């Protein structure tokens, strides 16, 4: 029985677990990073590669994390030590990932919340301005307020516990999120616009840009870069190698069919990412051509507001729906990150949930304010090992996502594949009496393929493979 069962929770069953895990997996990365990478990396070519990786690497990492959690019954900080003596350091490394991510996730949630208010009060044209987003995040009061509000909402859900907070919120948010995405994606396909030069573009043409594999100028180096981009997206998308799925796995009852649950999480997360691309790329193509598909936050906070402004009377409505949807995605992910931090601290300090949540909330409110002010009061530009430059938020993101996560995945696959053996995981998956699908694939992937790929991804993220770019 999980240690956390004694302190307030398990998921009520398979559906509650799947929705909560999918809620963690579906975050803002699905809504802007996947569409951006698809546009950058050859459209349908990236999608095809990503789908293959999901059912191989994604399946391997997700199965490992969830099974470790349920088998050990503890959070990531103690799970690896319980698996094998001498490997406790890996749990400590894993613990630091959500600790770092939590410093900035509420900040991003605050940015999204600001846009909800923007569309509610009808500032559609203002939001489309080139300097609107920059003007907001460089402020010293408004972005702080929005980040703190988002942080407090997140903390309230975690404070309520596993069943009464996380599962209850996920059961409401995730189906609604999916319906919103499907609605906007279908609407985007029927968009039509003629620009000042008389060039006419349709949503269906944008869909073709999204789905058609672009092989122009494809070299071995370029293919490897697309492969690494898709693999990096898996970490963002599936919440693997950051302790979240180990923690959620420890809340799963022994009679739940893990094999089926993992497949459902894969499908839900990939479907949302695919639909996000189907929603965003055609819309941007219709009103901005291919020039509007910028990288990172600019896609969500600069390019899309221009699209909503160009839609006319329906623009404010769709702008509001989109950012409410993005807020839901950010909230479920932020909840899972804070829950992982709280669950680990409960085990480390032997404290109860509510007290631990309150202390963590105070700490992360302070951290969020510091990160927010990294764009104004504490502004700096620091060169990162992968060649990019960034502020405080980018530094936290780089250390957690680009450095620690592939390194943790590399070590965990070595531990499972060569130290304790794949049977440690496969037996746990089948312990409920249900056969593990893709069992043979899992063994091959965790022993031979995944460690090599994780090593390459780690070297690339640290800048040692920048020659591929």
From TrEMBL:
This is Sodium:neurotransmitter symporter family protein. InterPro entries: Na/ntran_symport, SNS_sf, YocR/YhdH-like. The keyword Transport applies. It is found in: Membrane. The lineage of its organism: Bacteria, Bacillati, Bacillota, Clostridia, Lachnospirales. Keywords: Membrane, Transmembrane, Transmembrane helix, Transport. The keyword DNA-binding does not apply. It comes from Shuttleworthella satelles DSM 14600. Its main location: membrane. Pfam families: SNF. The chain crosses the membrane at residues 12-32, 44-66, 87-112, 132-159, 171-191, 223-246, 267-287, 307-338, 358-378, 398-420, 441-459. It is a multi-pass membrane protein. One of its GO terms (cellular component) is membrane.
């Amino acid at each position: 029985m999980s240690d956390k069962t004694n302190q307030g929770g398990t998921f009520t069953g398979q559906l509650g677990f799947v929705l909560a895990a999918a809620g963690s997996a579906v975050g803002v990365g699905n809504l802007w990073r996947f569409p951006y990478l698809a546009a950058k990396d050859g459209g349908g070519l990236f999608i095809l590669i990503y789908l293959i990786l999901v059912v191989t690497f994604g399946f391997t990492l997700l199965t490992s994390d969830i099974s470790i959690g349920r088998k050990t019954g503890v959070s990531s900080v103690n799970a690896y030590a319980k698996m094998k003596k001498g490997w406790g350091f890996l749990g400590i490394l894993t613990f630091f990932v959500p600790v770092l991510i939590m410093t900035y996730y509420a900040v991003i949630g605050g940015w999204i919340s600001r846009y909800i208010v923007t569309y509610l009060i009808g500032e559609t044209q203002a939001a489309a301005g080139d300097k609107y987003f920059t003007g907001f995040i460089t402020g010293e009061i408004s972005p702080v307020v929005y980040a703190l509000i988002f942080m407090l909402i997140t903390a309230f859900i975690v404070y309520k516990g596993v069943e009464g907070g996380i599962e209850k919120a996920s059961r409401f948010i995730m189906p609604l999120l999916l319906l919103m995405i499907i609605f906007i994606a279908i609407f985007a396909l029927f968009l039509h616009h003629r620009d000042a030069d008389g060039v006419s573009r349709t949503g269906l043409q944008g869909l073709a840009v999204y789905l058609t594999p672009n092989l122009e100028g494809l070299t071995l180096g370029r293919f490897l870069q697309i492969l690494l981009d898709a693999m990096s997206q898996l970490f963002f998308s599936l919440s693997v190698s950051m302790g979240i799925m180990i923690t959620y796995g420890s809340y799963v009852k022994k009679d739940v069919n893990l094999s089926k649950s993992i497949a459902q999480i894969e499908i839900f997360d990939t479907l949302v990412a695919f639909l996000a691309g189907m929603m965003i790329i055609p819309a941007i193509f219709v009103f901005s051509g291919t020039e509007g598909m910028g990288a990172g936050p600019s896609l969500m906070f600069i390019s899309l507001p221009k699209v909503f402004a160009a839609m006319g009377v329906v623009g404010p409505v769709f702008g509001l729906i989109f950012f409410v949807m993005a807020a839901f995605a950010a909230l479920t992910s932020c909840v899972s990150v804070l829950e992982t931090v709280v669950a680990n601290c409960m085990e480390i300090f032997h404290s109860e949930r509510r007290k631990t949540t309150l202390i963590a909330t105070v700490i992360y409110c302070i951290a969020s304010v510091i990160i927010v002010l990294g764009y104004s009061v504490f502004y700096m530009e620091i060169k990162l090992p992968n060649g990019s430059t960034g502020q405080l938020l980018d530094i936290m993101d780089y250390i957690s996502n680009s450095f620690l996560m592939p390194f943790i995945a590399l070590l965990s696959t070595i531990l499972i594949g060569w130290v304790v053996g794949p049977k440690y995981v496969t037996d746990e998956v089948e312990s409920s009496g249900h056969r593990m699908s893709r069992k043979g694939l899992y063994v091959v992937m965790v022993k031979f393929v995944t460690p090599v790929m994780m090593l390459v991804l780690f070297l690339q993220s640290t800048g040692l493979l920048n020659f591929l770019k």
